[in-house]
Amino acid sequence: MISEGAIKTHYVREILERDAKFINETQGKVISENLRRVSGRLLRSIYSKDFQIQSDENRMMLQFNFLRYLRFLDIKSSMDQFKNKELRSKLALYNRVIYGRLYNETRSDIKYGLTEQVKERIKTELEKTI
């Protein structure tokens, strides 16, 4: 018998993995399409999909391991007065990608997305692994 808690835990982990992969892919695409000089270290960092999902009894946490200067690339591109507005909007590497995805997509999917159909699908998946 699969408990309701196991189904919820599996669902939240599934959503967090999906959105962590989306954030990494989006950042990699933005970097490769818009930055002319990119270090190999930055590309390896983005394409390594370096995130972890940690959980205990009461909560689940998504943790990314970004290079520190990724945040500063985002700040620099938004403050640079010499670039045009269109290019600046394409260079959103951190706030728009991470917080936009987590607050708009992840939060609402976790809060409202666990329907009876999803529960049945997850229950079937978990029963296959047992």
Topology (elements, then pairings):
Elements: H1 4-34, H2 40-47, E1 51-55, E2 60-64, H3 68-79, H4 85-90, H5 95-112, H6 116-129
Antiparallel strand pairs: 1-2
Helix pairs in contact: 1-5, 1-6
Radius of gyration: 18 Å
Residue windows where pLDDT falls under 50 for at least 5 positions: none
Major sheet = 2 strands, antiparallel
Classify the helix fraction into a percent range: 55-70%
Task: Give the terminus-to-terminus CA distance.
Answer: 10 Å
Rounded mean pLDDT is 81
What is the number of helical segments per DSSP (H or I, 4+ residues)?
Answer: 6
Q: What is the chain-wise order of helices and strands?
A: HHEEHHHH
* Coarse shape: elongated
What is the spatial order of strands in the main beta sheet? 1-2
- What oligomeric arrangement do these chains adopt? single chain
Please tally the β strands and state the result: 2
The total number of structural domains is: 1
Entry summary:
This protein is 68% helix and 8% strand.
Task: Write structural notes for this entry.
The chain is mainly alpha-helical and 130 residues long. It has one domain (4-129). 68% of the residues lie in helices and 8% in strands. It has 6 helices and 2 strands. It has a two-stranded antiparallel sheet. Strand 1 (51-55) and strand 2 form a beta hairpin. Helix 1 (4-34) packs antiparallel against helix 5. It is elongated. The N and C termini lie close together (10 Å). The mean pLDDT is 81.
